[in-house]
Amino acid sequence: MSIDSKLAELGITLPAAPAPAANYVPYVQTGNLLFVSGQISSDAGGLITGRLGADMAAEAGAEAARACGLALLAQARAALGSLDRVAQVVKLTGFVNSTPEFTDQPEVINGCSDLMVEVFGDRGRHARAAVSAPALPRGVAVEIEAVFEVAR
Q: Which CATH number does the domain 3-150 belong to among 3.30.559.10, 3.10.129.10, 3.30.1330.40, 3.30.110.170?
């Protein structure tokens, strides 16, 4: 089954790949690795802002992380022409805008990790970091970057 068919089966429509907000590119491919710049949490309503442990619960943070995952997939499709070229999701690095007392960063970033496994199956299982940040760009709740292996 193609990844586009899998997305349709899951009822997932990818957003347009977001344009860079500063002096960087959205992705770089070197050899068979695709590095996708950090994608901040946003949806059709705009930026998903908030601070976990203050004004946002872990469940809402996981939804914000899933939105980051959709943007990561959109960037990968823009880079590769087709998500069928993704051989493996190698690594996600997730940053969670959270208070010093908040310790559920892994549960938040699961929103993106779970999406990758839903879409790619075993090829979606990846290494990962889930870390706290005292602030993120534009006040967003979550930012996630990714490394994908590209099939040759």
A: 3.30.1330.40
For 17-33, the pLDDT digits (tens) are: 999 989 999 999 999 99
Q: Tokens 């099939």 — which residue? A: 151
User: What whole-number distance in Å separates Cα of residue 29 and Cα of residue 33?
Assistant: 6
- pTM for this structure? 0.97
Both tokens of 80, joined, read 């590769």
64 Cβ contact list (under 8 Å, min separation 6): 41, 48, 50, 56, 108, 111, 140, 141, 142
CB 75 within 8 A of CB 27: yes
In the prediction, which pLDDT does 1 show? 86
pLDDT in tens, 35-49: 999 999 999 999 999
